[in-house]
Amino acid sequence: MTTAAVPPSVTLLIETFAELPGIGPKTASRLAFFLLRGKSELALRLADALQGLVNNTRFCSTCYNVTETDPCPICADPLRDHHLVCVIEEPMDLLSLERTENYHGVYHVLHGALSPLEGIFAEDLKIAELEKRVREGEIREIILATNPTSEGDYTAAYLVQRLKPLGARMTRLGRGLPVGGDLEYADAVTLSRALEARQEL
Amino acid sequence: MTTAAVPPSVTLLIETFAELPGIGPKTASRLAFFLLRGKSELALRLADALQGLVNNTRFCSTCYNVTETDPCPICADPLRDHHLVCVIEEPMDLLSLERTENYHGVYHVLHGALSPLEGIFAEDLKIAELEKRVREGEIREIILATNPTSEGDYTAAYLVQRLKPLGARMTRLGRGLPVGGDLEYADAVTLSRALEARQEL
Known about the structure:
The structure is a homodimer. By secondary structure, the first copy, chain A, is an alpha/beta fold. In chain A, strand 3, helix 4 and strand 4 (105-109) form a beta-alpha-beta unit. Chain A has 7 helices and 7 strands. In chain A, the strands form 2 sheets. In chain A, strands 4-3-5-6-7 form a 5-stranded mixed beta sheet. In chain A, strands 1-2 form a two-stranded antiparallel ribbon. Chain A folds into 2 domains: 3-56, Helicase, Ruva Protein, domain 3 (Orthogonal Bundle); 79-200, Dna Topoisomerase Vi A Subunit, Chain: A, domain 2 (3-Layer(aba) Sandwich). The mean pLDDT of chain A is 89. The interface between A and B is large, with 62 and 62 residues.
């Protein structure tokens, strides 16, 4: 072919969509051409929403959850139990736990799990920040709600080794969770049971 | 819960992602939270690419393909056969045909197929514009490459009825195509054979 069939701005959008997880070149093309079919308004709203995400969100300086205010609404809520901290890998895991409507403590988002093979070490996660909270705050119990995977279990074991000497009670979510699964896919009932059946470490 | 777990700007992005085809609320959440994990740069590039799509693309005033210049590079290419017009439903179908490297004519994009049940009639598609090209231009042959579905076949039959009296030769892509399929998923070899085996109408 002597002529380019796809304009550069369409190619650029397809390539950028394809950088998102789970979106291959074919899906990226479909999305771009969908937006070309009289969906300018949606394309511009999506652009605005993306810019809004970047401009308006930050991490809570206490729990490192995503927030528009600092401290985040959960850390600022006097009705939550600030002596009970649930440690999670990702902000999305917080949503799964909130959906149980069975947890009234606060959170600490690690932003990942330890994985020496992938080069993710303690200093890459919000672990020093968690230790600081434990040392400074009056934390009664730390619930380790990392994913029930080898990385999640390793992270939990590391946290026990590092934080248990500081005196707080440490528990791990009950193994009602299917092993090898991902916390964000757990249904509310299973997660709720796992919260109730949490085990002393 | 007394506190909102997801900031408004994240909710807005999730809801907007979910308006895209094939992206449900769960995938939309994953995409939004993926972008929150230190992917501000990607989020802003995606926003720019979306705005670029809206600001830089239009439809070619001859063939109605998506383009940044008018006429589009294919319509402006003196090496293409401008007496041979391939009629397709969507701009993406053009990519499939270009990928065969076996078609050197020009195109006409209908932007859909007739579907009386869904309320899509001739005046909703670029059919009057095609008729104008046939009446004004020196078109030797019109290849109907609408999808091999009931809507695509109905559209082809309608075009034959409307345009054949104007004198151009009209052909339909050979039925090497799997019936009930979608043109954009056809592999290059199958499409290439279908081009060669096109049938007189």
